[in-house]
Amino acid sequence: MTLDLPTISVVTFSATTIVGLVLCFVWWQERSSPLIGWWGVAQLVMASGIGFAAAASLSNSPQLVAFGQALMILSAAIMWMAVREFNGRSLNPLLVAVWPSGFVIASAFGVAQSLNGRLILSSTLLAALFLMTAFEFARAHSERLASRWPASLLLALIGAGYLTWMPLALTMPIKDVSHVYGSHWFPVVIVIAFLGRVALAFVILAMVKERQEMRQRLFALTDPLTGLPNRRALFEAADLVVLQDRVRKEDPLSVMLFDLDHFKKINDTYGHRFGDRVLQLFSQTLVDELDPDCTMGRLGGEEFAAIMPGTGLSVAAAKAECVRAAFAHAASFIDGMPVGGTVSIGVAAHDNIACDIGALFHRADGALYAAKQAGRNRVQVIGPQEGLQHEEREIDSVWYGERGPLLPAQRLSRRYRGTGADAA
User: Fold this and answer.
1) What are the structural domain ranges in the chain?
2) Three-class DSSP category at 349
3) Does 231-415 match 5-220 at the fold level?
4) Transmembrane region positions (predicted)?
């Protein structure tokens, strides 16, 4: 089957222009991500390159073909830099310009003077840029976006497609610009590259939307002051611990509850901004002292919690003491002010990870209350078989709803509802 290259050129130019305009319009309307805007600009530059190359073939102008190829290379370079910026790296205009500039210099000084030489050089540069862009998408492991892998695969396939231009140009060379329309292979590779670019545009839109949704969910589950998971995230984590680790149900599970001592006095003495500094300092202490697999968060106000799967009571108590000592040292003086910040900690543990984690939080709360009653600035532990010395008032209404027992996260939510005016 012979494809009509003039028709293909018109369709490719028109469709690529439309895709570029749509992407730019979406970015302008939402300003959601620079990646969409830059990808749209790259498509418009690509369409311009296709237009110049097609016009040059009709007018038999090798220089115009080279200019069109340089624009196509510029388009691929813009896409590469846009993905770098999407991954948090710098957007360097010099790195964008060096690729088409190198092609123009090579064409002008005889390195790739013939049409086939320029075709091989341009396809090599395009393949390199698309493969580098695929690598940029694949290398970002910290952000788990499902759309990254289709994008990487498409970019790698397009890059590999450009590499096939080289053996085709060597075995079936196009001797002159006027002979382009007589080529049997050139229309096929043009169509394949065009379809890949269109598919990529949809994947880019999906990826940006996926990132927005992920960040919105993360924002909804993060305490804005401390950067720790908020109460809602902690409750979800409590249920997930039980669901995910039922196979290892014989493993121990520990829970810690933290309450900063005399926090209201700190706020009244030094002001709320200083109180926020104390909260941030304590949250950093938790991050520094507890293990990475520990789930910690701010319940609200000056109350924090940590869930430690696979950790027995003795280890949890030792970790809690490290937190207490580290915070007492760090908060003794803040900005030269004798704050003397301390924390009381309640620790409870169970030897079965499939236990009622809501009841475990209740026991840790009882231990925390005992630590406060005993003078604060201390760690109080309660073992799996120990009874609570300090029962909370209205305990039945806390741990049982009006319609029966609550799920673990519901129990925690009922217990800690409204623990602070600035709770996240």
Assistant:
1) 5-220, 231-415
2) strand
3) no
4) 6-28, 35-58, 64-82, 94-113, 119-138, 145-165, 185-208
Q: What share of the chain is helix, strand, coil (3-state, %, to 5)?
A: 65, 10, 25
CA distance to 105, 154, 223, 262, 377, per residue, from 308 (Å): 62, 41, 20, 26, 21
What token pair was written down for 293? 């697999």
Average pLDDT over residues 240-260: 75
How confident is the model over 116-152, as pLDDT tens digits?
778 888 889 999 999 999 999 988 766 778 888 999 9
Q: What is the CATH architecture assignment of 5-220? A: Up-down Bundle (1.20)
| pLDDT tens digits, 171-204 | 666 665 555 555 567 777 788 888 999 999 999 9
For residues 322-352, one letter each, b for 16 or more C-beta atoms within 10 angstroms of the residue's C-beta and e for the rest, the string is: ebbbbbbebbeebeeeebebbbbbbbbbbee
Which H helix or E strand runs over 100?
Answer: helix 93-108
User: What amino acid occupies position 14?
Assistant: S
Element (H, E) at 40: helix 34-59
Query: Buried b vs exposed e over 253-291: b needs ≥16 C-beta within 10 Å?
Result: bbbbbbbbbbbeebbeebeeeebebbbebbbbbbeebbe
Residues 238, 357: contact at Cβ < 8 Å? yes
For residues 129 and 79, the answer to whether their CB atoms sit within 8 Å is: yes
Question: Are 220 and 270 contacting, i.e. CB atoms less than 8 angstroms apart?
Answer: no
- Of 194, 214, 74, 79, the C-alpha closest to 144 is 214
